[in-house]
Amino acid sequence: MADTLKLEIVTPESVIYSEDVEMVTLPGSEGETGIYPNHVPLMTKVQSGELVIKRGGAEEILAVGEGFAEITGDHVAILTDNAIDSANVDEAAAEEAKAKAEQRLEEGGDMTEDEAKALNHAILFSAAQLKAKRSRR
Prior knowledge:
The protein has 2 helices and 10 strands, in the order ββββββββββαα. By secondary structure, it is an alpha+beta fold. β1 (5-10) and β2 form a beta hairpin. α1 packs antiparallel against α2 (113-135). The longest helix is centred in the last third of the chain and has 23 residues, at 113-135. The radius of gyration is 16 Å and the shape is globular.
């Protein structure tokens, strides 16, 4: 029985994370899902939020955007639109991005449905960054 699993987090730009970990907690549409080594195979949707990683007895927190996770007994692959380590979050920039997206959404105007969805995703990811950063305190 393995005591770790390989976690890979991939965005359209690059591989954000690729390490052996003891446990991962994913934010999902049904709530948080804890993944340990030898988990049953699963495909699940990932919501914007905090992704908690336990590695080497320590906890790491990342903010992730929407995406999908494929889980096998010894591997977790997360494909997401955005991911950032909470240590690298610029709180002021995240607050500003959230405020701008909220303002643009309220203004509406000639906004398409795709633009509204993109703004909602930006708001959710900014909120996830702020929550992840503040939980490190």
